[in-house]
Amino acid sequence: MTLHTARPTTTDTLQGRPLRRGDTLYYAGDAAPSLYRLETGLLRAVRLTSQGRNLTVRHIRPGDIFGEEALHGLNRSHQIIALTDAVLVPLHLEHLSGPELWDVTRSLSDQLQRVMTDGVHIQDGELRERIARYLLNLASSSLGGSHDDGTRFVRATHELIAEGTGATRESVSKLIGEMRDDGLLTPAYRCLTLTNEEALKVEAGLY
Asked: Which residues contact 108 (CB under 8 A, 6 or more apart)?
């Protein structure tokens, strides 16, 4: 379901617009009348590859301003999906002040740096190394959490990990099983506990 991007009401501006986990904000090809600022939650930008697979090209975190197609008068270039419940605020260009436009520039610059880093993570190294990096990244996002003993976990499916690492779900499932057997992860339904986070960091090439 696409959420229409009508001009925000006062309530939208003050309280934000809610988005439920799994909802699509907009699809590739939709009109782009506004920017958005994410207040809470985690979103991902998805693009369909020529092989018909979804590829996660960008994660949108709280404070990020996105929907930059509106700056160029272009249609949306990808699909935006909520990975968690989220709240966002539409930003219409004609209502932005000078300081707010500077905030847009700074946010997009910060995200560009993140996308470049994430791109290296997706392309560099063997798939097992990329999975370890991706899980550590997600553990610090709204998809992450901690058990009572302090051990961190990530709420993610094998399909999500595959789309975030440029791999197939089958390959990811096989390696998740190997990492479980090696004591790095403890898989559960839609959840992966980072059982040995130090070893994961070594696997990810962070040490």
From this structure: 65, 68
